[in-house]
Write a structure and sequence with these properties.
By secondary structure, the protein is an alpha/beta fold. It has one domain: Nucleotidyltransferase, domain 5 (2-Layer Sandwich), CATH 3.30.420.10. It has 8 helices and 5 strands. It has helices at residues 3-10, 55-68, 79-85, 87-100, 116-119, 138-161, 167-170, 176-185, and strands at residues 16-22, 31-37, 71-77, 108-112, 127-130. Strand 4 (108-112), helix 5 and strand 5 form a beta-alpha-beta unit. Endonuclease that specifically degrades the RNA of RNA-DNA hybrids. It comes from Salinibacter ruber. Keywords: Cytoplasm, Endonuclease, Hydrolase, Manganese, Metal-binding, Nuclease. Pfam families: RNase_HII (PF01351).
């Protein structure tokens, strides 16, 4: 999980940030991104791809990340922003905002996926994209954990005002119950109008 970071540290980059996002495929809620800079040469086995961890393991790992990180930042793009520009651009913008929020700032960013090069050519940091990076890079995995836990907590808070959509369980993702609730109750301001919210 540190091969990418070790190569960059050896090249003289001390503050390598991992970037990832959560919530791209959801019908409701923001897309949330995180940037995390971990200390050089420190490998923490609890930090794994967030999708491979249970909720309890993610929360434990988040606490470890918050204790150990040199810097960490979380950012989001709202459903309105997603509708205005599309989900890919919103996800990349959320990651850019997260990286911009790191203090101290990164001197290199590792970005999950393969879209950064074509869409954020003016970003101020040298960068490398890593396909399935949350399973290959500790820094990206740490960012995936922060983004996922932050977004899940936000959707559970929104569930209190809109329990009919079951966001406490589906956290905004498309489930049959979510589609059924949309048919019965209509969309909320938290839904992404540019997504297919209704299906037969």
């Amino acid at each position: 999980m540190l091969s990418h970071e070790r190569r960059l540290w050896a090249d003289g980059y001390e503050r390598v940030a991992g970037l990832d996002e959560a919530g791209r495929g959801c019908l409701a809620g923001p897309v949330v991104a995180a940037a995390v800079i971990m200390p050089p040469q420190v490998e923490i086995t609890a930090i794994q791809d967030s999708k491979a961890l249970s909720e309890g393991q993610r929360l434990d790992a988040r606490a470890t990340i918050e204790d150990e990180a040199v810097a960490a930042s979380i950012a989001r793009c709202s459903p309105t922003e997603i509708d205005d520009c599309n989900i890919l651009q919103a996800a990349l913008e959320a990651m850019r905002r997260a990286a911009s929020g790191c203090r101290p700032p990164p001197d290199f960013v590792l970005v999950d996926g393969n879209q950064w090069d074509r869409n954020l050519v003016d970003a101020p940091w040298p960068h490398e994209t890593v396909v399935k990076g949350d399973a290959k890079s500790q820094s990206i995995a740490a960012a995936s954990i922060l983004a996922k836990t932050e977004r899940d907590a936000l959707m559970r808070d929104l569930h209190e005002a809109h329990p009919e959509y079951d966001w406490a369980s589906n956290v905004g993702y498309p489930t049959q119950q979510h589609y059924d609730a949309l048919r019965e109750h209509g969309a909320t301001p938290h839904h992404r109008q540019s997504f297919t919210l209704f299906r037969d």
